[in-house]
Design brief:
Layout (H helix, E strand, L loop, with lengths): L3 H9 L10 E5 L32 H9 L3 H15 L7 H33 L2 E6 L2 E6 L8 E5 L7 E7 L5 E6 H4 L1 E8 L10 H5 L3 E6 L10 E5 L7 E5 L4 E2 L4 E3 L3 E8 L5 H4 L10 H31 L15 H4 L3 H16 L6 H13 L1 H4 L14 E2 L13 E4 L6 E12 L2 E3 L4 E2 L2 E2 L15 H16 L4 E3 L3 E2 L2 E2 L2 E2 L2 E2 L2 E3 L3 H12 L3 E6 L2 E5 L5 E13 L4 E7 L5 E7 L1 H4 L3 E3 L2 H13 L3 E10 L1 H16 L4 H12 L3 E13 L3 H10 L3 E5 L4 H10 L8 E5 L1 H6 L2 H19 L8 E6 H8 L11 H10 L3 E5 L3 H12 L7 E5 L5 H6 L2 E5 L6 H5 L2 E3 L4 H38 L13 H11 L1 H10 L5 H6 L15 H25 L3 E3 L5 E3 L8 H23 L5 H21 L15 H6 L2 H28 L3 H8 L11 H6 L6
Parallel strand pairs: 15-34, 15-38, 31-33, 34-37, 35-36, 36-37, 38-39, 39-40
Antiparallel strand pairs: 1-8, 2-3, 2-4, 4-13, 5-11, 5-13, 6-7, 6-12, 8-9, 9-10, 14-40, 16-17, 16-33, 18-19, 20-25, 21-22, 23-24, 26-27, 27-28, 28-29, 29-30, 30-32, 32-33, 41-42
InterPro entries: ATPase_P-typ_cyto_dom_N, ATPase_P-typ_P_site, ATPase_P-typ_TM_dom_sf, ATPase_P-typ_transduc_dom_A_sf, ATPase_P-type_domA, HAD-like_sf, HAD_sf, P-type_ATPase_IV
Pfam families: Cation_ATPase, E1-E2_ATPase, PhoLip_ATPase_C, PhoLip_ATPase_N
Membrane topology: Multi-pass membrane protein
C-alpha cells in the first residue's frame, strides 16, 4: 500500500515542519493573483493566538503527573508505595504515600499557579484590539483573529500584533521608527523601510487596491534575518519583483515610535512569529552539585538494596532451624506459609526495601528546589549590584546554577562593552599619513570647529586636499546613523539648544556615532537622509547632496561595510570602512605603509582603529554591481551566501584614504575585578574580535597581563615564519622548562599567551596528514594550563564557543564561565557551564540568552566571590546533611532487625516515619541553606583566596561524603545501643507489664523506638546548630521551634493533650518515657556522646591544619546576632550584622 499521499498530506499540515515546503506564498488582502499569473494554492496557517501555557484544564493532571514521575526519585517512591499496597509490608502505605503526595501536590500547585498566570497573560494579549483593512474600510477585531495576508493598521506607540511587512508609512520617505526593547533590549530607534512601490499609499482604499503576493521563507527564530520578495501585479503587465529583507519586517512585540501610522501585511502569525519561536528554552545545564547528588543517591540505593538482601538472607538462615519459625504476631496464613521459598524470599526482599526506603530522602529534591528558587532573590535584591545609570540590578534567568557560581575555574570574557565601557570617543584620524585631532592645542590655544585640525607632517597640495575631502565625506556617508531633529522623542525633550532644535545621532553601533560626531568636530556635519539623499554640511558651510544607491551592510565575517552613492555631478563612488585586516588586502593604491604604521601605533595605545577606502565606479561597473546585488537580494535560497559573493566581487580595487582611532575606556573597577579573580584561582581568558595590539593594550590596562608577564605569541604572523608544529613545540618547551625551574627558584615567571583566530582554526582543524606529528589540541591545552592569562584576538563568534568547548572537554573538566554583552557573545554564553550577560549598549541578546545578567563587569566580583561562595557552601551542607540525617534515621531500624528475628517489625511509629523528613527536620536545614554565612561578606571580598577552599567541588568529594555517612552510622549505633542498654535487665510487674529495673520505666517496643527517635531528632537538629556560624532570630525560632513542635506533636499523638486521640499503640508512651528521670539523663548523655566526635574533629582540624576559611573565622572578633526583623531583605541589601 502506498502511503506517499497520506504522508504528504500530514507533512503539509504539520505547522513548523520546514520539510514540507521551502517557502510560503502570502496573498495580500487574500486576493487571488490575476489569471495566468500563477496557480492559486491556498495554504493553511495558524491563527494569531499566542499560547505560552503548558497545560489546559483537561490535560493538567495527567500531563503534570507524567512530567513529575519522569524524575527518578519520584518514580522510585511511587514504586515503593505501590509495593506497600500490593504486598503485606511492615509499614503502612501512608508512610510513603503521604510524603510523596505532599511533594507531588506542592509541585503541582506551584506549576499550576504559574501556568494560570501564563493563561491570563495569553488571554490579555490575544484579546487586544487590532485594526484591519477590509474592503477599503478599517475594521476593529481581536488579535487572535488575525490571519496571514491581512492588512493591518498600526498607530504610534502601539505594539505590532504579529510579524508584518511594511507597505506604507505616514512619513513621506516611507520609513518608520521602531523600538525593539521587548525583543532584544535595544531602546534606540531603528529605521524600517516600506516597499518602494507601495510607500506612496496613504488611504485605506489605496492599500486595499493593491494586488500582490509575497514569497518568503518558512518561519525561523532568527530576529535579524528575513528573506523574501514581493510580486506586484499591475494590469496585464509582468509582475514587478522587489526584494524583502529584515529592514522591511516589523516584528511582533516591537513598538511603533514617532510615526503616526503604518499599513503592513501579516506574514507570520501566532506561534510562528519570531518572538514566539524564541520562547523555546535553552538546553538544560546541570551543576556539579546536582551530578554529585545523583551519584550519592546511587550509592545509597546500593546500600538500601544491600541492607534488604542481607536481612532477607539472614532471616531465612535464622529460620532454617526447625525450632524457629516466623513470630506468631506476623499473622501469616497457612497458604502464605506454603508458598514457594523463592516467592516468599522475593516478597520479604520487597518488604525490607519498603522498611529501609527512607534512607533515600524524598523531600531533598523539594528542599533543594526551594533553596535555589528563594536563594536566587538574594542576587536580585543586592543593592551593591544595582546600577544607577541603567536603573537596573542583576537578574537571574535560571536558579538551577546558583552553586555553580562558587565553582568557576575559567572565566571567558569579551572585551568591547564587557571590560570596556563601549562608550566611544573619537580621538584622531589619519589621512595619507597626516594626523587630524579635533580641538587640538596649538600654541596654547584650543582650535575650534572647522579650524580644529592639527596637521602633522602635512604637505600642502591639491592631491592631499582631495583625499582629505574624500576621507571626511566617506565617514559622513558610510554609516547607518539616524538623525533626530524632533524636539520631543518619546515625550522627552532632546536636542534643544538655545531654544531651537538641533540634531543628534542615534545608532545601534556606538562606533558609528563617535565617527560621525568626530567628523562634525572636524568641520563635516552629517545632516539627514531625506528622499534617499544624504546631506552633509562641509567646512565651507555648503550643503552637499549624495544619492544613496546601495548599502552593503556590515557583518562579522567581512568585518566591513560599504555604500554606493552618486554625487551631484553624477559620479558613482563606493566608500568602504572596516577592520585593517579586511581593507588592506583589497587596496591597490594609497599610502599604505604610512597608514599601517599609524594604525599599529594607535592599536598599541589601546585605541580601536578602522580603515577607510574608496573606489570610483564607471557607469558599466555600477550597472554590473546593481545586477549582482539585485540578483542576490531576490534569491529566496542561500540569499546570505549570494550576497556575500556579490559583496566580494564589488568590494575590491580600493584606494586607501586613511584610518580612524576611537577610544573605548576601561570600565570602572574592571582591573580590580580581574585581579581578584586571579587571586581566587581562576584563569581569565579574553576573547575578542579586535586586532592583537588593541586587545593587548586593554589586557595590560586591566591587569590581565602585568609588565613582568612573559608574552607568548601564537599568531598567523609567527606561523608564517615557522611551521605551526615548530611554534607549538617551542612554546611548550618554554613553559615546561620554566615550570621545572620554578621548583628550584623562588621567583616564578608569569606567562601570558596571545593567539589569533587564524592560528586557532589551524589548531582545531582535523588533519589526517599530521597524525604522526602529535596532537596539536593537547599541546595547545598544555601551554594554556601553564599560562595565567590568555588573549584570543580576531575571534569569530563561533570560534569563541569552540574555545569554551575545548576547555570544557579537557581532561580536568573544569567549570567554565562566559561573560559578554553582545549578540556575538551568545554562542560562548550558551556553551559555558555558566553564562553571564552584561546589560550593555549592544542590545540585550547576551542578557536574554544568559543564565545571569549584571549591569557592569565589576559586579562579577561579588557575584562569584560572595554569592557564589555562599550558595555553594549552603547547598553542599544541605545535601550532605540530608544523607547524614537519613542514615541516622534508618540504620537503627536495620540494627533492630537483628533483635526481632528479622520479622520486618518497624522501630518507629507510622507518624514518626511520615513526618521525620517533612516536618521535624526540614525547616532548620532549609533556613540554614538560605542565610548561613560562615564568614562575612567583607572578608570574602577582601580576601579572594578563600574561594580556593571550595574549588573543585571540595565539600562534595567522596572523602567528605564518606565522613558524613560514617558519622551518621556512628550516631545511629550510639542511639540504638545506648537505648538498648538502658532497657537492659527488664522484669514483669504484678499486672503483667514489662518494667526496667534500673529506670522503673514501662518497657515496650514503641517506648524503645520513641526513645531512639527522640535522641535522633534532637541530635541531628543540634548538629546543624553547631554548624551554624551566622545566627539570626529566625534561626533561633526555627531550630528551637522544630524541637518544640516535635515534643508537642508527640504529646498530642500520645493522647495527653487531646485524650480522644488515644491511638492504641502510642497511647501514653511519650509521657511515660518523659516521666522517668534516668530516661532524661540517658537522652542528654546519648546526644552529647553523638555530637562529641564531630566537635573533637573540628577542634583538632582547626588547631593542627586550619584552612584559609577557618583562619578567617578565627580572626573574626566575635559573632553577633542580627537584630533585623526580616532576614532576607537585610541580607539582600548587604547590611547584615556579623
Amino acid at each position: 500500500m502506498d502511503f506517499t499521499l497520506l504522508r504528504n498530506i500530514i507533512s503539509r499540515y504539520c505547522v513548523g515542519e520546514e520539510i514540507w515546503v521551502d517557502s510560503r506564498t502570502v496573498y495580500i488582502g487574500h486576493k487571488e493573483p490575476p489569471p495566468g499569473a500563477e496557480a492559486y494554492i491556498p495554504q493553511r496557517y495558524p491563527d494569531n493566538r499566542i499560547v505560552s501555557s503548558k497545560y489546559t484544564f483537561w490535560n493538567f493532571i495527567p500531563k503534570n503527573l507524567f512530567e513529575q514521575f519522569r524524575r527518578i526519585a519520584n518514580f522510585y517512591f511511587l514504586v515503593i508505595f505501590l509495593v506497600q499496597l500490593i504486598i503485606d509490608t511492615p509499614t503502612s502505605p501512608v508512610t510513603s504515600g503521604l510524603p510523596l503526595f505532599f511533594v507531588i501536590t506542592v509541585t503541582a500547585i506551584k506549576q499550576g499557579y504559574e501556568d494560570w498566570l501564563r493563561h491570563k497573560a495569553d488571554c490579555s494579549i490575544n484579546e487586544c484590539p487590532v485594526d484591519v483593512v477590509q474592503q477599503g474600510k478599517v475594521v476593529r477585531t481581536q488579535s487572535h483573529k488575525l490571519r496571514v495576508g491581512d492588512i493591518v493598521v498600526v498607530r504610534e506607540d502601539e505594539t505590532f500584533p504579529c510579524d508584518l511587512i511594511l507597505l506604507s508609512s505616514s512619513r513621506h520617505d516611507g520609513t518608520c521608527y521602531v523600538t525593539t526593547a521587548s525583543l532584544d533590549g535595544e531602546s534606540s530607534h531603528k529605521t524600517y523601510y516600506a516597499v518602494p512601490d507601495t510607500m506612496a499609499f496613504r488611504t485605506e482604499q489605496e492599500v486595499d487596491s493593491l494586488h500582490a503576493t509575497i514569497e518568503c521563507e518558512q518561519p525561523q527564530p532568527d530576529l535579524y534575518k528575513f528573506v523574501g520578495r514581493i510580486n506586484i501585479y499591475k494590469d496585464k503587465e509582468e509582475p514587478v519583483a522587489r526584494p524583502l529583507g529584515a529592514e522591511n519586517m516589523l516584528l511582533r512585540g516591537a513598538t511603533l515610535k514617532n510615526t503616526q501610522r503604518i499599513y503592513a501585511v501579516a506574514v507570520y502569525t501566532g506561534m510562528e512569529t519570531k518572538m514566539a519561536l524564541n520562547y523555546q528554552s535553552k538546553s538544560q545545564k546541570r551543576s556539579a552539585v546536582e551530578k554529585s547528588m545523583n551519584a550519592f543517591l546511587i550509592v545509597y540505593l546500593c546500600i538500601l538494596i544491600s541492607k534488604a538482601v542481607i536481612n532477607t538472607v539472614l532471616k531465612y538462615a535464622w529460620q532454617w532451624s526447625p525450632d524457629r519459625d516466623e513470630p506468631w504476631y506476623n499473622h501469616r496464613t497457612e497458604n502464605e506459609r506454603q508458598r514457594h521459598v523463592v516467592i516468599r524470599a522475593f516478597t520479604d526482599f520487597l518488604a525490607f526495601m519498603v522498611l529501609f526506603n527512607y534512607i533515600i530522602p524524598v523531600s531533598m529534591y523539594v528542599t533543594v528546589e526551594m533553596q535555589k528558587f528563594l536563594g536566587s532573590y538574594f542576587i536580585t535584591w543586592d543593592e551593591e549590584m544595582f546600577d544607577e545609570e541603567l536603573g537596573e540590578g542583576a537578574q537571574v534567568n535560571t536558579s538551577d546554577l546558583n552553586e555553580e557560581l562558587g565553582q568557576v575555574e575559567y572565566v571567558f570574557t569579551d572585551k568591547t562593552g564587557t571590560l570596556t565601557e563601549n562608550n566611544m570617543e573619537f580621538i584622531e584620524c589619519c589621512v595619507d599619513g597626516n594626523v587630524y585631532i579635533p580641538h587640538a592645542i596649538c600654541n596654547g590655544q584650543i582650535l575650534s570647529a572647522a579650524s580644529s585640525i592639527d596637521m602633522i607632517d602635512s604637505s600642502p597640495g591639491g592631491y592631499r586636499r582631495e583625499h582629505e575631502d574624500l576621507f571626511f565625506r566617506a565617514l559622513c556617508l558610510c554609516h547607518t546613523v539616524q538623525v533626530k531633529e524632533e524636539e520631543t522623542v518619546d515625550g522627552i525633550k532632546r536636542g534643544i539648544h538655545q531654544g531651537r532644535p538641533t540634531s543628534f545621532y542615534i545608532s545601534s553601533s556606538p562606533d558609528e556615532v563617535a565617527l560621525v560626531e568626530g567628523m562634525k568636530r572636524l568641520g563635516y556635519t552629517y545632516l539627514r537622509l531625506k528622499d534617499n539623499y544624504m546631506e552633509i554640511l562641509n567646512k565651507d558651510d555648503e550643503i552637499e547632496r549624495f544619492e544613496l544607491l546601495h548599502v552593503l551592510n556590515f557583518d562579522s565575517v567581512r568585518r566591513r561595510m560599504s555604500v554606493i552613492v552618486r554625487s551631484s555631478s553624477g559620479e558613482y563612488l563606493l566608500f568602504c570602512k572596516g577592520a585593517d585586516s579586511s581593507i588592506f588586502p583589497r587596496v591597490v593604491s594609497g599610502k599604505v605603509e604610512q597608514v599601517k604604521a599609524r594604525v599599529e601605533q594607535n592599536a598599541v595605545e589601546g585605541l580601536r582603529t578602522l580603515c577607510v577606502a574608496y573606489r570610483r565606479l564607471t557607469q558599466s561597473e555600477y550597472e554590473e554591481a546593481c545586477h549582482h546585488l539585485t540578483e542576490a537580494k531576490l534569491a529566496l535560497q542561500d540569499r546570505e551566501q549570494r550576497l556575500a559573493q556579490a559583496y566580494d566581487i564589488i568590494e575590491r580595487d580600493f584606494v586607501l584614504l586613511g584610518a580612524t582611532a576611537v577610544e573605548d575606556r576601561l570600565q570602572e573597577k574592571a582591573a580590580d575585578t580581574i585581579e581578584s579573580l586571579h587571586k581566587a584561582g581562576m584563569k581569565v581568558w579574553v576573547l575578542t574580535g579586535d586586532k592583537m595590539e588593541t586587545a593587548a593594550a586593554t589586557c595590560y590596562a586591566s591587569k590581565l597581563f602585568r609588565r613582568s608577564t612573559q608574552i607568548l605569541e601564537l599568531t598567523k604572523k609567527r606561523t608564517e615564519e615557522q611551521s605551526l608544529h615548530d611554534v607549538l613545540f617551542e612554546l611548550n618547551r618554554t613553559v615546561l622548562r620554566q615550570r621545572s625551574m620554578s621548583g628550584l627558584s623562588v621567583d616564578c615567571l608569569d606567562f601570558g599567551l596571545i593567539i589569533d583566530g587564524a592560528t586557532l582554526s589551524a589548531i582545531l582543524k582535523p588533519n589526517q596528514e599530521r597524525a604522526g606529528t602529535g596532537n596539536y589540541r593537547e599541546i595547545f591545552l598544555e601551554i594554556c594550563r601553564n599560562c595565567s592569562a590568555v588573549l584570543c584576538c580576531r575571534m569569530a563568534p563561533l570560534q569563541k564557543a569552540q574555545i569554551v568547548k575545548l576547555i570544557k572537554a579537557s581532561k580536568e573538566h573544569p567549570i567554565t564561565l562566559a561573560i559578554g554583552d553582545g549578540a556575538n557573545d551568545v554562542s560562548m554564553i550558551l556553551e559555558a557551564h555558566v553564562g553571564i550577560g552584561i546589560m550593555g549598549k549592544e542590545g540585550r541578546q547576551a542578557a536574554r540568552n544568559s543564565d545571569y545578567a549584571i549591569p557592569k563587569f565589576k559586579h562579577l566580583k561579588k557575584m562569584l566571590l560572595v554569592h557564589g561562595h555562599y550558595y555553594y557552601i549552603r547547598i553542599a551542607e544541605l545535601v550532605q546533611y540530608f544523607f547524614y540525617k537519613n542514615v541516622c534515621f534508618i540504620f537503627p531500624q536495620f540494627l533492630y532487625q537483628f533483635f526481632c528475628g528479622f520479622s520486618q517489625q518497624p522501630l518507629y511509629d507510622t507518624a514518626y516515619l511520615t513526618l521525620y523528613n517533612i516536618s521535624f527536620t526540614s525547616l532548620p536545614i532549609l533556613l540554614y541553606s538560605l542565610v548561613e554565612q560562615h564568614v562575612t561578606m567583607e572578608t570574602l571580598k577582601r580576601d579572594p583566596s578563600l574561594y580556593r577552599d571550595i574549588a573543585k567541588n571540595s565539600l562534595l568529594r567522596w572523602p567528605v561524603f564518606l565522613y558524613w555517612t560514617c558519622l551518621g552510622v556512628f550516631d545511629a549505633v550510639i542511639f540504638f545501643f545506648g537505648a538498648y542498654f538502658l532497657f537492659d535487665n527488664t522484669t514483669f510487674t504484678s499486672n503483667g507489664q514489662l518494667m526496667t529495673t534500673n529506670t522503673q520505666m514501662m518497657f515496650g517496643n514503641w517506648t524503645f523506638g520513641t526513645l531512639v527517635f527522640t535522641v535522633l531528632v534532637f541530635t541531628v537538629t543540634l548538629k546543624l546548630a553547631l554548624d551554624t556560624h551566622h545566627w539570626t532570630w529566625i534561626n533561633h525560632f526555627v531550630i528551637w521551634g522544630s524541637l518544640l513542635f516535635y515534643v508537642i506533636f508527640s504529646l498530642l499523638w500520645g493522647g495527653i493533650i487531646w485524650p480522644f486521640l488515644n491511638y492504641q499503640r502510642m497511647y501514653y508512651v511519650f509521657m511515660q518515657m518523659l516521666s522517668s528521670g534516668p530516661a532524661w539523663l540517658s537522652i542528654i548523655l546519648l546526644i552529647t556522646v553523638s555530637l562529641l566526635p564531630d566537635v573533637i574533629k573540628k577542634v583538632l582540624c582547626r588547631t593542627m591544619c586550619p584552612t584559609a576559611t577557618e583562619r578567617a573565622q578565627s580572626s573574626r572578633p566575635c559573632l553577633t546576632v542580627e537584630p533585623s526583623t526580616i532576614f532576607m531583605l537585610s541580607q539582600s541589601s548587604s547590611r547584615m550584622s556579623f
